[in-house]
Write a structure and sequence with these properties.
By secondary structure, this protein is α/β, with parallel strands linked by helices. Helices cover 42% and strands 19% of the residues. Bound molecules: guanosine-5'-monophosphate and manganese (II) ion (MN).
């Protein structure tokens, strides 16, 4: 093993001693510092205690194969490039390898020059990824972008395990009382620091249904101990495709009369053919429906037409500074009148000041929500009027 670490430190994993020896020799001769291990477990142990610039691993090994190793590696190191090598390439494992963020997938017999060039490139890319992450952290960004699917999945699973809901009051201004609470998503996972990031990850991983079920289960267990509350729960359009939402024995179905399901106007429901039918099924379970973020969406009036909501929530962008903005007042005033004509109650979201509160109350909004009354918090904070 001459040559030192100038080219970078590489971990090589293969269960065939002959292959391992060849890789070790080729890469050492190419100037890399090589550590060679014969199985996935030893590889993980090495990565736990040492930092590598690249990992070269066989795909099919007994016990822990290359793809499982790749996922395990991402638990420990978000950036180290992994090159997978196989003697029997199959389309599935190639696709999986790339999906999970293998930098490259190479087949045996491996050409010496190709191997060296690939590993050299991997080392540079890995170093670049580390520097970028440091730069972002230094500049105060969240520095937690998840480079590939394996990293994203690990962060998402951690987020899912630590999902909790906070609750923000929706107040009835005229009656001076709390009317309902909106459940809002939070997690303890720093790599997915806000609800948008968690939803985005769920979407990329195709796991929105799982997330929706976790949320609904938590709301159900809260409602089990507070029989009189009314809770607004955000739905992702994709949740409307989840049969679990419609099951009579699903955790939240038993509390449907105490739940308003919010569907955002930010996403289009147009691609869904049977929205009206699906919403009718939800109503027959006892749910009511709100259209969320009205005024922020591009979906026109489609969602309102499909959903015939009992509640309409006006987006905070229209509420911000409304007391000093005649156009906003006209728009919100017109919305309130139309909502009334459609028998829907109006919620004004994002009220931050007394002046905004007074302005929307004067325009006839029934229900108000925003930091001015209370921040989202543990259930259930009271509001002083
Ligand atoms: O899209 P939706 O309306 O469900 O989003 C609600 C989000 O708005 C929550 O993340 C909540 O924390 C935030 N929010 C609630 N009230 C206010 C407010 O008064 N001002 C601002 N800026 N954000 C708010
Ligand atoms: Mn909402």
């Amino acid at each position: 093993m001459d040559g030192g670490a100038a080219e970078g430190k590489v971990l090589v994993v293969d269960d065939e001693p002959g292959v391992l020896k060849v890789f070790d020799h080729v890469l050492s001769t190419g100037g890399f510092e090589v550590e060679a291990v014969s199985n996935g477990r030893d590889a993980i142990a090495r990565i736990q205690s040492h930092s590598f610039d690249a990992v070269v691993s066989d795909v099919s090994m007994p016990e822990l194969g290359g793809i499982a190793l790749l996922r395990a590696v991402r638990e420990l190191d978000l950036d180290v490039p992994v090159i997978l090598v196989t003697g029997s390439p199959s389309v599935e494992s190639a696709v999986q390898a790339v999906e999970y963020g293998a930098l490259r997938y190479i087949t045996k017999p491996v050409q010496v020059d190709d191997l060296i060039a690939t590993v050299r490139k991997a080392v540079r890319l890995g170093r670049m990824a580390r520097v970028k992450r440091e730069a972002i952290e230094h500049l105060g960004g969240d520095g937690r972008q998840l480079g590939d699917r394996a990293g994203l999945e690990i962060a998402f699973n951690a987020a899912l395990a630590s999902v909790r809901l906070v609750y923000q009051p929706i107040v009835h201004h005229g009656a001076r009382e709390v009317f309902a609470y909106e459940a809002l998503l939070r997690s303890g996972e720093p790599r997915l620091p806000h609800p948008g990031a968690i939803l985005d990850a769920a979407e990329r991983l195709g796991r929105l249904h799982v997330l929706g079920r976790v949320v609904r289960k938590q709301v159900a267990s809260l409602l089990a101990s507070s029989p009189k509350s009314l809770i607004f729960v955000n739905l992702h359009p994709e949740d409307l495709q989840d049969e679990d939402l419609f099951r009579e024995d699903a955790p939240l179905s038993g509390f449907a009369k105490q739940v308003v399901l919010e569907a955002t106007e930010r996403a289009s429901l147009e691609h869904m053919l049977d929205v009206s039918h699906r919403v009718a099924r939800l109503r027959s379970l006892g749910y009511r429906v709100a259209v969320d973020d009205i005024g922020a969406g591009y979906a026109g009036l489609n969602s309102i037409a499909h959903l015939e909501p009992e509640f309409m929530k006006i987006d905070m962008a229209l509420i911000r500074g409304i007391n000093a903005d005649v156009t906003r007042q006209k728009v919100v005033g017109a919305m309130v009148r139309l909502c009334r004509e459609m028998d829907a109650m109006v919620v004004a979201e994002g009220i931050e000041t007394a002046a905004e509160r007074d302005s929307v109350a004067e325009l006839g909004c029934d229900l108000l929500q925003g930091f001015f009354f209370a921040r989202p918090s543990e259930p259930f904070v009271d509001v002083t009027f």
